[in-house]
Amino acid sequence: MEVLFMQIHRSDYLLPGSNALHANFGVIAAVVTRRRGRLPVATLTTIATVFVQRCTVLESACNIDVAAWNPAGHRIFDQDKNMDSEGMPVRQRQAWSTAFGIVLVAGVILLGCVAGFDDFFFIDDAQNECLPFFREMGRLWLSGDLPLLTTHTWLGGNMFLDMVLSPFSPQTIVASLLAATSEGRTLPVLAFAGTNFVLVVFSGWWLGRIYGLGRRWSLLLGFLLATQPMFLYVFAASWWNSASAYAWFLFAFAALLHLRRSLAPGAFALAAAGGCALFASAMTQLHLAYALLCVIVAVADFRAHRSLRRIALLALAPASAFLVAAVPLMAEYVMSSGWVMRSSGWHNNGGEQVSHWGLLLNTFNPFYGSYTTWFGHQQHLPSLGYSTALLFFALAFFRWKPPATPEQKVLLAFGFAAFLLCFLPSQTGPMRYPIRFLPALAVPLSVYALQRVAHGTARIDQRTIKRAAAFIATVTLLTYFSAESGLFYFDALMRLAMVPVLFGGGALVLVHLLRQPTPRDPRVSWAMLISAFAWVVGLALTPSLGGSKWPYAILPDTDAIRPTGRPGYVLGLCDRGSAWGRPEQLGELISGRYLLYGQPAINGYSPVGHKGFAHHFPYGGDAHGLFQPRATLVDMARPAPGLPGIHVHQLFEISDIFACDRDLDAPLVQQMAAAGLQPAEAGLRDGRVRIRAVNQLASIGSLLRLPDADGVVAAAAAAARREAFEVPGRAEARHLHFSRLYWPGYSATLAGQPLPVRPYLGAVVEVEVPPGGSGRLDLHYEPVSWRWTRWSLLVGLLVIGGTMAGLAVGRRRRA
Length: 815
Fold this sequence. Notes:
The protein is α+β, with helices and mostly antiparallel strands and 815 residues long. Helices cover 51% and strands 11% of the residues. Strand 5 and strand 6 (431-432) form a beta hairpin. The longest helix is centred in the last third of the chain and has 29 residues, at 786-814. The protein is globular and about 95 Å long.
């Protein structure tokens, strides 16, 4: 084994970043591969490393001075070569090999997730909100319309106002088009996750180069940021909008520092584009972190250059991005605040998804089992990929004095700011859950850890080992006794036993492999094996995120659950039993899942809600819309005021209701029967009952055929945001009702003249036609904020174009 280890190390074909991680598993995998003769794996590893060894792009722009970051002159494995042995242009070879290395690292992470768990990227919000609405947004894009509004669901139908879907994020646009054109869910899910992984790895690599790390160290940084647990197991697996925001946050971080180094048109365009994409990806926490980063960069640059012109140029990039993306996309929520139900305040009730000292300290501990409280349930994450685990090695066994560069000061200041953000209350204004700041905190911690290991002086002796072991033991015990109740369970005790073994053996191997060209001490191999064994034991003892609460792959294929085939909307009122498990029938779906199967439904998903809608379908503001069954049924059977013979359920065009028999009693059944709601099928799973509306109203598009709609005919095909009708004249005024959820952006014209549009019963669109009014009636929705924010978009684009032109002219003059 020692001979094989020497051959592997001298051949230097380990994967990018494996210099730090193969103490645990990289070399073991290579040894096993060579021993067993698995040629495809060995060949892939060899080819990958040949490319990755020379990975670099943006080298001249980064202007990396290795001596400034490594004053002690320690051996660095990633020093660039001047000539290519095969005669290929060095810069071209480096660009291609860098791209290949980034895609390879991202692909390995993606394949690892898919191979480890079924439907890794399809839990919680991913299946209840993201993919269903992505499919709907893709359908709207293909129809030539903007994905602002959908009439296929009531709750969450205003996709633009909800923001959380990020309809104009680049990743969302691509994934929504794929979701609309493919039958299954594999292609859009993998495309969305893979794009985010590539962007995170690339941005991490770019940051590494800016901060003086070599090519492979920079790829290792990209790997660490892409496997940060909050991003990998929560954002990428569930909160897709947050995954996109994190990816663009890293890109915008690197682009802003790049602009500080090079005030050039291209650098300004990258910084502005990164800011625009970040603001288009809805995640307020990272928007706030980016704003603080911009302030910190401006202060650091001013202290270094004392130039107001530079500060102005640095400020114009995020400011123009704010005008182009943030204002047009977020102003509608602010202007519609009187209609939404989004909670706001400053409290820490329940401490839900709040950072605590144990959580932050145990980012040093790769065997920390309980990562966060996920809606009252203990969640456990695999240990692989803790981005700050390496920081323990760096602090314990390496000495390094950071250079006093502006970039380093930015890193320190932003790390402190991100640390403070992690301790905000659970509800901070409209923002929730400060654990969402953890990926931002991981950036400076990971960068500093790799800097310290790559450029520092290694020191390992009895004293450092004792201190390290004491620190790990203290942190682990404090956390278990303060935040855990399962200290004396077998897996907890095993973790406590394995942590010192992992760190002790891993530290010895790390120091030898990074600092010695040819390690010959046989103790290295034994330490490597012991450390790898501890890592495997800890990983085996840690269950997956999805297995703790939700099983993966709980939704069957699209052909397993079929729509009713009847016009109108389905209303699901059973939120217990198999609703959270694997559904087998249409009535067992919840939240926005109906959209996956092409079934129009009252149910949906909305984190902001609608006050008028909640009056008829009370659900307490829960984003999944788990309606209160009895209160909802009572309201649906209620007569509609001012409309003789009409009941509320008819205004919402409900065709079928799936309720639980425990929520029905004789008086309620009698009241429903009088309203035309008849039980049609009983004995379904979990005591469900199917109730059918026998007196549905006919409609023309969304226009309900009530007496005031007599003689009205469609003038054009109905679309999500617009409809047109021909209205004959009548002596008295008409009140036309549309089965659309009212929002302030609705407007109507009759023969070019505006008509009043208002909500009926606080929820349904009502248009008043004056006496004698006739002609073409156009009903149209456009966000009310766009009347003003379109000018913000124009000004932002002009600022970007004007600044780039000015920088280009200045460069030509200086040349």
